[in-house]
Amino acid sequence: MTDPRIDDRLLRAIRKLPRGSGVVFRHYALAPDVRRQLFGQVRRVCAQRGHCLLLAGDELTAMRWNADGVHALTGGRLRSKRLLRTAPVHNIGEIRKGAKRGALALFLSPVRQTRSHPGQRPLGASRFAQLAKLSPVKVIALGGMSRAHAKKLTTRLAHGWAAIDAFA
């Protein structure tokens, strides 16, 4: 997950990801032209490293910017067969909604305490497992994650894990 807190290390962090990883480009607060320019830089690094790049936003922008997919809970089913779809989810209602809208994977969060959402109560490993079992699609653990924390999750329930600070 991209985040302005690691802008000075962003491209270097993406280069260090294992080949074939995925990147969700967020950076919502940037002016549209600045956001698109940074997305282009990230896209070039992702192409070099074989990473999948999803735009957090809308499908039309993701298509125009040549993203591999879109990361969003809003909107109906994808019009583009080319784009992958993932969605952020926090509870069973959002899990059902994301699956119904055709998400390939759901980012379930926050598993642990996180700087991105201070004060938000984390799910914890057991609640994460309960919700992941109910998901009809793949679940990716997000929120306070690190390699050590990911190893503690059942790989049968967590297809993978995502982070911001752990990759910085």
Topology at a glance:
Layout: H1 10-16, E1 22-25, H2 32-49, E2 52-56, H3 59-64, E3 69-71, E4 84-89, H4 92-100, E5 105-108, H5 124-134, E6 138-142, H6 147-151, E7 160-162
Parallel strand pairs: 1-2, 2-3, 3-4, 4-5, 5-6, 6-7
In short:
With 168 residues, the chain is α/β, with parallel strands linked by helices. The protein is built from 6 helices and 7 strands; from the N terminus they run H-E-H-E-H-E-E-H-E-H-E-H-E.
What is the CATH superfamily? Aldolase class I
The proportion of residues in beta strands is 15-25%
Number of helices, counting only DSSP H or I runs of 4 residues or more = 6
Mean pLDDT: 89
For the largest beta-sheet, the strand count, sense and barrel status come to: 7 strands, parallel
- Kindly provide the name of the CATH class: Alpha Beta
Count of domains: 1
Catalogue the unreliable spans: none
Span between N and C termini?
Answer: 11 Å
Number of strands: 7
**What would CATH call the architecture?**
Alpha-Beta Barrel
Principal-axis shape: globular
Identify the strand order in the major beta sheet. Answer: 1-2-3-4-5-6-7
Helix content: 25-40%
Structural class: alpha/beta
Return the string of H and E elements.
Answer: HEHEHEEHEHEHE
CATH topology: TIM Barrel
What is Rg?
15 Å
